[in-house]
Amino acid sequence: MIRSSILLFLMLFVFLAGCGDKPEMNASKIQDSSDSNQSKSAVEIQTPSDSVKRGEPGGEVQSPLDTNQNEPRTSLTDEQLLMKPPGRFAGSNYNEQKVQDALDQLTSNSTADQYMEELFLLLAEDYRPYVSTFINFETEVKVDNQRPDDKMRLPTSKKLHISILLDASGSMKAQISGKSKMDSAKEAIQSFADKLPKNAEVSLRVYGHKGTGDQKDKQLSCNSTEEIFHGQGEQTNQIKEALNGLDPAGWTPIANALESVKQDINPETTDSIVYVVSDGIETCDGNPVQIAKDLNQSKVKTVVNIIGFDVDNEGQKLLRQVATSGGGEFTSVDNDEALKNYLNKTYDKLRGEWTIWKEKGAGEANIQKETKQGTINKTQETMQILVNKENSNLLAALKYLETKNGKAFPRSELFKKITERKNFAWKYARDMGKRLYDEVSKSGNKVYDDIVDEGNKNVDDLTNKKNN
């Protein structure tokens, strides 16, 4: 009985001891686990990114390895890939020893993608200026070359007055080649007026159109001078109507007509030109030489030109003196065709302006095109030089890692990615350069052709008008 009691006591003791040990063992395991975690937290497992950040002075750089690897990545465009900031040792910051020191911080158990991202943080070149140039490049060629008007236009800062004085004395009844001098003069003046600057002030004055050539009508005729049109160059189509019904009549008061010009000129006029069409000299006892001189020396300086229409030698000599004193020129014409040719010099001037416009515009189109193409070529070539430099630096880093780690890192896969990077960046520069170059060529050639075609058309039109 006593033995049985002792045995039962021993079994109970063992049972209780066993129950007391289990919690202690569990607590020990939990403590061990906690200690292990605290140890890992204190030491921190070094990733390549962490090592590089410690090896780089000047603050932390966020590494792709710091992001959640399980998060999906958004696909980037070519421009976005190349617009990333450059590496720490890109461009002039490159230092082989510093690069190697940074590479020493990397561990050999990283993937090729992780190595590549770390290498970019160190060695990626700055392509942003070149990509920005490509993205924002304006390929359109624009030439802002002011076209000549069908009628010449003066600078807005000038106010031009043109006076036409037409001899309506009896001698203008004489015929040349079956047509009266007056009819020939009317046609020539109308043709001339149609080509005057649109914004010029134009007046047409006749003289000697009253009375007859008889002595009894001399005073009436010599006092007869009348402005029959006054308007802008764009209104000269009204001159034909003003000339209708005008017939040659009396004497030739050139001095009186020139004196009357003073009242026709606007005080705000800056330039004044007079064209006198006459078939003879002064016959009203006036002094046209002095009046012409006065006009030329007046506040509004006026140039007096004389067109002698079928005038004899003595008459030419006297009329030339009038022109000289008026600061102008004397021109002698002996038929209606010569009169038209003189007044129609405006056509030749306008044709010359269109030729200049064409050559200037075409030249500007070529200059713009070649300048833009030069910028594109330079951008492409400079970027490709940078691609080669980046590739060389990446390969040098790869070689160092190979020497350091031997076969303990993904050398072949990394070499492939470095090659792909070079091919991608090089091809981007080449393809963008070619596309933009071609667009500039197309735009520049079109502008050039349009300018040449328009210039030639206007020159041809003016030539046809002159010949008709």
From TrEMBL:
Residues 28-50, 64-78 have a biased composition (Polar residues). The keyword Nucleotide-binding does not apply. Residues 27-93 are annotated as: Disordered. The keyword Transmembrane helix does not apply. Residues 1-19 form the signal peptide. Transmembrane segments: none annotated. It comes from the Bacteria. Keywords: Signal. Pfam families: VWA. This is VWFA domain-containing protein.
